[in-house]
């Protein structure tokens, strides 16, 4: 039996990005909420709602990176607490869906009405919000490709950036046409955009929680490469999954040919898993006789 270790916690590496982005977004949220209530702009209120979701999502993501690296004192968390980041991403999905549902419902309620909207504050606050979101995006972009936790926060801010652009566009349209329903139309468009981004992130979160093979890792390819290891006659009970972003796990049974050194097979297979597939933790078992191992029904 061989265990290959090389786990690196990617989310923790970008904790500072989450912290700075959280301070920026939280500082602006109150301003945008007050301006939205005063101006009567649904687009501005929807963007403030996204900002509130950002604050919670960033806070949860930041807490998750701390929990994920916390030592286990119970002895029962044999895989650590790395899944905390995935749960934080799931919370982000729920917040985005909630924001989209609220704006969509409010927009539907306003259809057919002609709300009075103050376009000036909309454009000013929307412009400031755009700057704040762009700075937060630049901070989070560096970690979004490595950590699903940071990616969830990044997508939340992306949605809010689009919301800020929408607020500015709605303000310009209302100012030029004098028709307040443009505010409702833009708010509805923002809600649809947020909904789509939330569903895409949800698919990634469910893939991790469902223990699917990680994206870009083909089980058939892994099995084929292991079969090419000198001395390996057969491969079975291969399982691949991810604990969290960048932390892939694998188990496999290798049937060795007669007269083959089990230690040599383990070492060569370990090298394949690490170098070819970047598997963070591989548990490999060598067997001399496959008939002695009863494969699991799952």
UniProtKB/TrEMBL annotation:
SUPFAM superfamilies (alphabetical): Cation efflux protein cytoplasmic domain-like, Cation efflux protein transmembrane domain-like
**What molecular functions are annotated in GO for this chain?**
zinc ion transmembrane transporter activity
Membrane listed as a keyword: yes
- According to the entry, every stretch annotated as the Cation efflux protein cytoplasmic domain falls at 218-287
Pfam families in UniProt: Cation_efflux, ZT_dimer
Q: Where is each Cation efflux protein transmembrane domain found?
A: 19-209
Query: Where in the cell is the protein located?
Result: Membrane
List the PANTHER family: CATION EFFLUX PROTEIN/ ZINC TRANSPORTER, RE54080P-RELATED
Q: Mind telling me what this protein is named?
A: Cation transporter
Q: What is the lineage of its organism?
A: Bacteria, Bacillati, Actinomycetota, Actinomycetes, Micrococcales
